[in-house]
Structures are given as C-alpha cells and as structure tokens.
Amino acid sequence: MKKGIGINTTAVIAAVVFMGILTTAIASIGYKLYYDNVMDNYVSYTKTVVEYASRAAEEYSFGDMVAAREMPDGYEKFRSELNKIKDCSNIEYLYAIYFEDIYDIYSLHYAINAKTQEELSSGRPLSEIYSYMGKPCEQGAFADDTLLILQKAVKEKNRSTGTMEGYSEGYGYMLNGYHVIYDSNDNAVGLICVEININKINECVQRYITLVIITAFVLAAITIILYLFYIRRHLIKPILSIEKSSEAFVKQIQNNAAPEDLIYEKVSIRSGNELHLLADNVQSLADSVASYMNNLKTVTADRERISAELNTATMIQQSMLPHVFPPFPDRKEFDLFASMTPAREVGGDFYDFFLIDDDHLGIVMADVSGKGVPAALFMMVSKVIIQSCAMLGRSAGETLTKTNEAICSNNQAGMFVTVWFGILEISTGRITAANGGHEYPAIMKANGEFELIRKKSGLVVGGLPEIRYKEYEIALEPGDKLFLYTDGVPEAKDKDKNMFGLDRMLDTLNEDKGASPEKILANVRNAVNAFVKDAEQFDDMTMLCIEYKGADHETD
Amino acid sequence: MDELTIKKQKEHDVLTVFAEGRIDTDTTPKFDAEVSPSLDGITKLVLDFEKVSYISSSALRVILKLQRKMGEVNGRLIIRKPTDLVTEVLEVTGFLDILNIEK
Q1: Taking CB atoms and an 8 Å cutoff, what residues of chain A touch B3?
Q2: Quick one: residue A82, left, alpha or beta (phi over 0 = left, psi -120 to 50 = alpha)?
Q3: Inter-chain touch A487–B97, beta carbons under 8 Å
Q4: Same domain, yes or no, for A67 and A48?
Q5: With an 8 Å Cβ cutoff, are B64 and A463 in contact?
Q6: 3-class SS of residue A429
Q7: Is A338:A366 a contact under the CB 8 Å cutoff?
Q8: Residues A28, A34: Cα–Cα separation, whole Å
C-alpha cells in the first residue's frame, strides 16, 4: 500500500500552521487593545490641558481681549501663564485662535500662543517665536475638515472640550483638543487649542507589537515543541509501532509463511489509554488470525488425509466387487456384465456373483439404506454374510432369512439393505430367487420385450427380526436376459427433480434388446446421463445383466 | 418452496402427522426431526401420506425406527392414505406386510 504524508509530518505541519494563526491572533488583539488604551490616555490628557488653559483664559478675561482684538497689560501675563502650562506638560502646541468672519473658515487668525523655556532660549527674537493677536494663520496649517469642526464649535457655542485626530503635511499625526472662549457677554469669540504629536504613539505601538509577536512566537514554539514531543511519545510512536508490527505480520502472510511461524511482535505501550486497547485488540486480532490459519491448516490436512483414505476405500470397495469381465471365460452358458457407480467416493449399492458349485451361480443385487461411508461399511458386511450363507449350500430364501437374522442381531444404527438374491442352475436355466425389498428385476424372454417381474417382495433385510423370505422361480431359455438394478437408475433426477422412472428404463432396454449385457448397461447409463444432464448424481447407480445362452454352449 | 412441509396434530396419546411433498434423502432429516422428538406419551402415531408424492429408502429407515418405538410402548403406527407411488415403494420393499395401512 502506498503511503501518503506520514502522520509525523502531518503533525508538524499542523502545529506550525496553528502556531502562525495563534501568533497573528495574539498580535492583532494586542495591537487593538494597546492602541485604544494609549489613545484614551492621550485624549484625556489633552482634555485636561485644554480645560486648564481655558480656565486661565477666563481668569485673565482673555475672551474680552479676543473680542476687542486688543493686547492690554494682562495679555503677556496670560501668555506667561500659558507658557508655564506648556512647560509642565508634554504637548506640542498651545495657542488660541479666532475666526475673523465666522462664516469663512479661511479667516482664521491667531490670538496668542505659548512656548516653553527651552524654545524661548533658542536665541531667536521673541517677535518670531510668538504669535500675536491678529496674526493670520498660515495657509494649509489646518486641514479643511479640522477648520469646519472648529467653526461649528464656535457657532454652536460648544461648552464642552472636544478632541479630534488630524493629519497635515507639515505636522504629521496630531491629536487636537479645543475649547471655545467666551467674552464677558458670553459671546463665543475664539478657541483655545492644544496639539499633541501622536506620531510617537505609532512608534510605541510598533515596538509593542514586535515585542508581542516575538514573545507569542517563542511561547507558541515552546508549547508546540512540548506538544509534539508529547504526542510523538504517547500517540505517534505507539501508532507507528502498531503499524510496524502489523505490517510485518501482513508481510509474513503475503509471503506464505507457515501458519505456526506467524508472529505478531508485541507492541508495549505503557499508558493505559485507548492506544493501549488498540494495541491489545490488534494483537489479539493477529493472534486469532494466526490460530485460525493454524486450524485451517490442520483441518485441511485432516481433509486431505480423509480424502486419501476415501480414495483407498473406493479402491477397496471396487476391488471387493467382481470387476473382471467376462468373469468366467471358460463358461459359455451365460454372458454377464455389471457395474456400480457410487454417488460419492464409496457407495452402499453392490452387485455380486459367484459360483456356488459347478452348476450354480449366485447373483446378488443390493442397496444399503443411506450413502457414503456408513452405507459402505454396512455393504461390506452384508456382502460377506450373503456370500457366506449361500456358499453353505442354502437356498435363496434361506440365505436371506439367515442374513436378516445376522444383521438384526447387531444393528444399532438401524440400517437395512434391500437384496435381490437368485441362484441360477446353469444346466437348466432355472433361477430360484428371493427378494428382500429390492426393485423388481426386468426379464426379456427370447424375442419378447423387457418387463418387470412383479413378484411379491419380503421386507428389507435388517428391518425386523424373524422374517422368513419366500422364493420364486424364473425359467430362462437360451437368449433370455435378466436385468437387475438399484433404485439409483429409475430415481435418477434431472435438475428439476423429475425422475428417470421405470417406464423410461424399460423403453431404453427395449430399444436395443438384442444387445449384449455390456452394451445394455452402457445404453441405460447413457440414457440416464442424457436425462439428468448436468444435475449432480444423487444416488449410487448399480446394474447387472445376464444373458442365458443355454447348456449347449458347454465348457470346452 | 420447501419440498416437504409437516403439520402435527396431537390429541391425548394420538399424534397425527400431515406430510406434504417428497420425503427423500434431502428431506428425511427434517421429517425425522419433526416427528421423533414428539413421541412422549404417544401410543398411536398416524402418518398421513395423502399428499406425499414420493418416499425414498431413507424415509423407510425412519418409518422402521418409528415402528420400533411404537412397538416398545405397545402402540401402533398407521400409514394413512398412501398415494399409489408410495404404496408401490412400500410394496416393493416389503413394508406393506409389516405396516398398518389405512386407506
């Protein structure tokens, strides 16, 4: 799997971005708060100075001097009062002004100004330093909107002290405080003004901001480094070790390591948090996978072993049934062919034939209830018992009766077997048969058709104890054929569960009734295969056909 | 559709089993599981096969087992109204002689 940006890098990038945002935020808020605060202080300081000066103006009746545009004795006393104020304060300018024509903002004139001791000792003549009553203000000393505000204050006889910020080319940023002057008739005649240079504020704020940014940056950097250190140790490192362990584990699986060699390297996490749980869970998941794969291996091995054993069982079962044809090459009196096709590896069907003596041939067709290994075990037992009883010279009925007794005496599983058993007297073609619940055989008399021999059956063998099986006889003439089968033939089903059926079976037999036993079996098998098509073979299918050729075909 | 449906009706010590469909190798385990555990205190077991189209030898094994269980309590097993095909299977396998058939 291709990795994107690692969790480590992501964490660092996130931290740096976070640090930048945090620093910017702190600086912006700090700037705003600091600026507002400093400005408030300046405003209030300005107002104080203006009010102090305006009180002095009242005391010296300065309003009357302005109204009369005169400079009496008190004029210079008032100026020295203002000079003291300016000396003691930290202001840039202190002066009084008046509009010659209140409707013309450009008719502004100075009434007086103040200077500090320091300014006075510059050596320049006083007439240059001081402004006297009636001196016109320099063009451009005040911005127009400043002039409008001052005009308005005079016109409206504003009693309170006002402030404003202004900028002009010659003076830079200034904070301007003003208060209207009245004469003794309470006419507004002019204004006392104070200006404070606030260019200094901006320098201050800049210094402050630089300090804040550096401090915030350093603090944020320290915090982030500590934070990164913490999450590296407690979050990233554990996750990376879980990732490393699980990747190693997955690699082992991809490289087809043997299940018992699968190792998930334990991740040790000291903290008791969710990561600990995650590590434990991943560990137990990996352990489960390993043990599951181990189990799977065992199960697979078991299955392979069972499969191998079943293959052997199939061979044993097949070899138990006579499977060399013709079975008795030197007996020309009959031709016999048989086949057994189990639905699974081993089956419960069987056929059998054996010479009891020179003149008697035992023929067995049987079907054990059930399928697979249990049926196969029961089939082996049944086959041996039937043959043993028959070889003792018992009749067909006695053989089944004895077999039933033997099986019933020890049948915990409740199994039973349907058996058709016949003994052919080779010299005469006479068959003595007994039927323990097995399908009716089909007989073809020479030149006739195959038809079922519907003789009454006894109960299946192994069903109930103390059953006596009756016998019946079949006389075979030369050219007659007897066809034996198990229910796997008529009950073969196509995928829609339709059964092949006895009628189809008889039709198939009669289509080529002159054929040899071997060909007849092949015909039936082909017909069944064509009928069921690709449906799974469901039941064992076993057939036997014997053609009687007559005693004339004697042994060479 | 399920190939075999079973309905049971119990009256005192009589259990009647109505089967419908095929009782073959596939469905016999279901038939066995439905009937065998319900036999406590039953002395008459009626298997109604009126709607059973086919029974296989595996079904015969279960019937034989049920017959034995009924025998152990001196009870009776009755096959009611078997269809022609079922009757034929019972006849071929010799079961017709040992079972009580009720037409």
Answers
A1: 497
A2: alpha
A3: no
A4: yes
A5: yes
A6: coil
A7: no
A8: 10
> How many residues comprise chain A?
556
In terms of Cβ atoms closer than 10 Å to its own Cβ (0-12, 13-18, 19+), residue A326 is: middle
B94, A371: Cβ pair inside 8 Å? no
Tell me whether 0.90 is exceeded by the ipTM.
Answer: no
Interface test with A, best of B22, B54, B64 (most A CBs within 10 A): B64
Contacts of B95 in chain A (CB under 8 A): 437, 459-460, 463
Of A489, A180, A517, A166, whose CA–CA distance to A336 is shortest?
A517
- Let me know whether A291 and A356 are in one domain: no
Confidence (pTM): 0.60
- A415/B61 touch (CB, cutoff 8 Å), yes or no: yes
Q: Is A110 exposed, middle or buried (0-12, 13-18, 19+ CB in 10 A)?
A: buried
Residue of A nearest to B55 (CA): A491
Rounded to whole angstroms, the Cα distance separating B81 from A155 reads 127
Domain that residue A101 falls in: 7-204
Domain ranges of chain B: 4-102
CB of A81 less than 8 A from some CB of B: no
My answer on whether A102 and A181 are in the same domain is yes
Are B61 and A370 in contact (CB < 8 Å)?
A: yes
Tell me the pLDDT of chain A (556 aa) as tens digits. Answer: 445 677 778 877 887 888 888 888 888 888 888 888 888 988 999 999 999 999 999 999 999 999 999 999 899 999 999 999 999 888 889 999 999 999 999 999 999 999 998 888 888 888 888 989 989 988 777 888 889 999 999 999 998 999 988 777 677 788 899 999 999 999 999 999 999 888 777 787 788 888 888 888 888 888 888 888 888 888 888 888 888 888 888 888 888 888 778 888 887 777 667 888 888 888 888 888 888 988 998 999 999 998 898 888 888 888 889 988 889 998 999 999 999 888 877 778 899 999 999 999 999 999 988 778 888 888 999 999 999 999 998 999 999 999 999 999 888 778 899 999 999 999 999 999 999 999 999 999 877 899 999 998 899 999 888 889 999 999 999 999 999 999 889 988 888 888 899 999 999 999 998 899 999 999 999 999 999 988 877 778 899 999 999 887 654 4
Question: How many whole angstroms separate alpha carbon A193 and alpha carbon A111?
Answer: 11
User: By the 8 A CB rule, do A398 and A356 touch?
Assistant: no
Rounded to whole angstroms, how far apart are CA atoms A523 and A529? Answer: 10
Whether omega before A326 lies within 30 degrees of 0, making that bond cis, reads yes
- A460 near B CB under 8 A: yes
What is the C-alpha end-to-end distance of chain A, expressed in Å? 82
Q: What is the CATH number of the domain that holds A406?
A: 3.60.40.10
Set of chain B residues whose Cβ sits within 8 Å of the Cβ of A416: 60-61, 64
Residue A228 in domain: no
Cα atoms found within 13 Å of the Cα of residue A301, Cβ hemisphere only: 7
- Same domain (yes/no): A342, A453: yes
How far does the CA of residue B97 sit from the closest CA of chain A (Å)?
8
Virtual CA dihedral for A32, A34, A35, A36, nearest 10 degrees? 80
Which tokens hold the place of A520? 């007849």
User: Which residue type, as a one-letter code, is found at position A360?
Assistant: H
- Select the CATH number that applies to the domain covering B4-102 from these four: 3.60.130.10, 3.30.750.24, 3.40.190.10, 3.60.15.10: 3.30.750.24
